[in-house]
Amino acid sequence: MKQIFALFVILLTASSCGNSVYKEQSGTEHPAQITLAVSNYPLLYFTQEIAGDEFVVIFPVPGDIDPAFFEPTGEQVSSYQSAEIIFINGAGYESWIDKVSLPRRKIVNTTAKVSDQYIREKGMSHSHGPDGEHDHAETAFTTWLDQSIALEQAKLIYETLKESYPESSELFEANFKALEVELTALDTQMEKAFSSWADASVSASHPVYQYLGARYGLHIYSEHWEPGQKVEAEDVKTFIESLHHNESQLMLWEGEPHPETRKLLEEADVKVVVFLPCGNRPAEGDYLTTMKQNLAKLD
Amino acid sequence: MKDSIYLAYRYLTYNRVRSLVLTFSVAIIIFLPVGLKRLISESEDQMLSRANSTPLIAGKKGSPTDLVINTLYFQQEKIETLTMDYAAILDETGFGYSIPVMSSYSARGFPIVGTSLDYFDFRNLSPESGRLFGVVGECVIGFNVARRLDLQAGDSLISSPESFFDFAGVYPLKMDIVGVLDHSNTPDDDAIFVDVKTTWIIMGLGHGHQDLVQVYDPTIVLERSDSTVTAGAKLFMYNQIDPENLDEFHFHGDINSYPITSIIFIPENQKASALLRGRIESGEIDNQLVVPTLVVDNLLQSIFRIKQIFNSVFVIVGLAVSLIFGLVIALSLRLRKDELYTMFTIGSGKRKIAQIIGMELLLLVVISALISGIMYFITGFFIDEFINAFII
Amino acid sequence: MDLKSLKKPENCESLIQVTNLKFQYPRSTFELHIPELQIGDGEKVAVIGPSGSGKTTLLNILSGIIVAETGQVEFNGQQINTMSDSELRNLRVKQIGFVFQDFKLLEYLNVYDNILLPYRINSSMPGVSGRGSKARELCEHLGVGDKLSKYPKHLSHGEKQRIAISRALINDPPLVLADEPTGNLDPDNKALILEILFKMSDANNSTLITVTHDHELLDGFDRIIDFADFQKRAAL
User: Could you list the residue range(s) of the whole structural domain that residue A77 is in?
Assistant: First the structure.
């Protein structure tokens, strides 16, 4: 009798262990390698952070090209076509997207829910033929520089992944929450860092900091100067004069300016800060470290 | 019995022309209703199959039949267009996903269908050779298009101008063929597929030309200011898209306001379909949303009535042919009176003579049925193509 | 003509015995009346007489095609006027050979099939297999051995009649009825055909009854029955 009881207990225990193992396995069960695609580095970072290692995230833009002006080859288009989900920045960032064919249902515009916050700027118009004038009105597209929008973009990535792969939703949630903490903290840090420049004359080498300015209370005047290219002294002089001799002058550059240009600006007491927009992969570090490094340069 | 068959066979083969005429007449009169029944039945099946595989079609308010015919069978009836943003509106309901369709232009007699890559997943179409389109200006052609026009991946097709004399209107675009689709036995075999954006380029809503900001030719640039450049008619519009000029192609205005002829909507489930239909019917969302099966079924009811008429005609024609057949046999027997009397004289009974004549008729009917059967069998090889070419 | 012509020669077995035969076609005033007629085995009998005198009718009665209302017709010991239809046609196909003025070959059968026709049209006959050699033999004998695969439209009148005779003799009948067999032939062929008929009759010991209008060819017959005499006798 005792032996039968013991056997029964053993069997019951064994079956329970088996059950819990099955649940554990099903709880941590991951889909086979699924490919996701993104159109810029911030989205790459967010997606990798949220999805984890079980997903392959492709970002076919070469490292030396600004993803906003990317012109994909046929092979690169094919790699996008083969992805299960394609996360795009939206706000007109992907100028190439109107010329390529991607599965519509796989495209997720990460700024769709914040499109009311898009910043529109008048572009160059031209006219020909009977239709009259038509301009290529431009929407500012470096949305992630506003960390609150970046968080929304990350959130949309999280929600999309959760809906598409519910079996991994717990993982996604945990990962997103961690990212949310980081981005929220970064937002606070940026707000604090730029608060001291609120009354300053802030300019930029290129019109890429619109969302930064809008979020953190900066009125940014933009030139169209290329990093690394020497700006004519006359143009620098004109620029400096336009600053109206404001005591506090900051110029944000998306890349290292020409040494002579830097010298001219610094001689005019303009603080030149290379604030990497981080549209593509940074040379070192990641999105968060790069943004923190950007902020550190403001001090 | 063997001898009767032999004599009947000898008679029929000796009177070859008469036998052939009678045989084929009867074969045709047997085949016609049966063949027509098969044709209609197969057409119905194919039309219904195509309709059944398409859950919902959205379009501008108007004739549901024209909408369905345009979307499913690419018959380019003039229908009102709706705007591209409607696809996003439907997607935002969360009830499923949209596939835009723009079927309004043609190339060398075949319809150009602008759509998205989702269409191929939805219809289970894949390239037999080459690949699906990747950029604007590329096209994928159906199996029959490739065969009839002798085209393959690497060749090109030029879209037909809307109006030969309307030089300011739709102008031809040279499209690169990048793939040929597998044979599907559907209207997809007879279509040229492009990205919907390519159809907008054909329409002239998008185009490519030299960057006017960079052009200083005074014969091209008429006026220039800080914010505007005005060009004259000399400005050359590219009529082919290649890697060198792809970047120069652009669309004017909001792409979401661009036209499409319809949207195929794939709902998540029956409930989602019903909810969406409810929203459309209540006017919460504009335009019309049709269930293709219901529309095609209605259309087939009309075809069914025509089939009934055809059947009646065939019965009458069959009766007439039978009467003529009977008359020919009767006249033939009268002419053969002497021959039959000879057989009687030398020792044949009337029953035997009747058996011989009966065998002649039976052989005629059997051969007719056989020919009719062969025609029916052969029809099977061509019926799909016939349906796709002339019916669907 | 001597009444004796109506009786068979004494040294012959009686093949046909007609007694008190009377026949009248419906809606006709003509009546065939034969009080007595005997025809023996192997006899070659010519039947002559004016048109409409009943010569062909006699052949039809003797072969059972027509059944007389009155009188008796005995063929080979059998009363044929009481036979059933199937018995009569079996009699015709097995025991009587027919030769016609207009040959009556079937246009859609070749010579070989025409000769073997009797085997195909009556199920009491054995099948055609094994009969081919007989057909070829007859054709060879009658000088048309090279015509077996030909169709009647490719043959001359004389050739056609020889083939018709082959058909009539294919199953060795004891009686051959020839109705104007030379009527459509030229003089040379007339003599030839009659010579063939006589030879085959002698060879097979079969009785030949020939209706003819060719009085110059009557020499070869054993007996001549003149129907003009019948009419006179009937009138008496």
Answer: 34-119+135-186
The answer to whether the CB atoms of C118 and B346 lie below 8 A apart is yes
Q: Is there a contact between B112 and B102 (Cβ–Cβ < 8 Å)?
A: no
The pLDDT assigned to A43 comes to 98
pLDDT in tens, A126-152: 454 444 444 445 789 999 999 999 999
* Least Cα separation, residue A103 to chain B (angstroms): 5
Give C211-231 pLDDT, tens digit per residue: 988 888 888 888 888 887 666
The phi, psi pair for A91, rounded to 5°, reads 60, 30
pLDDT confidence of residue A208: 92
pLDDT bucket at B263, cuts 50 / 70 / 90: very high
Whole-angstrom Cα distance, residue A253 to residue A272?
Answer: 7
* Over residues B208-232, mean pLDDT: 60
Cβ of B345 and C94 within 8 Å?
Answer: no
In terms of domains, do A87 and A147 share one? yes
C94 to B347: CB separation less than 8 angstroms, yes or no: yes
User: pLDDT tens-digit profile of C93-139?
Assistant: 999 999 999 989 999 999 999 999 999 998 888 777 778 888 898 88
Phi and psi at residue A18, to the nearest 5°: -60, -45
CB-based touch C/A (3+ pairs, under 8 A): no
Cross-chain residue pair B345–C92, CB shorter than 8 Å: yes
Q: Most B CBs within 10 Å: which of A80, A128, A160, as the mutation test of the B interface?
A: A128
Domain C42-67+83-235 has CATH 3.40.50.300: yes
CB pairs under 8 A between B and C: 66
Cβ proximity of A84 and A208 under 8 Å: no
Q: Is the confidence at residue B252, as pLDDT, over 90?
A: no
Question: B278 — contact with chain C (CB < 8 Å)?
Answer: no
d(CA A141, CA A111): 10
A127 falls within a domain: no
Would you place residue B36 in the very low, low, confident or very high pLDDT band (cuts 50, 70, 90)?
confident
B247–chain A Cβ distance below 8 A for any pair: yes
Q: What token pair was written down for A172?
A: 């996604």
| Number of other residues whose CB lies within 10 A of the CB of residue B370 | 12
C 148-187 residues with CB below 8 A of B?
A: 151, 167
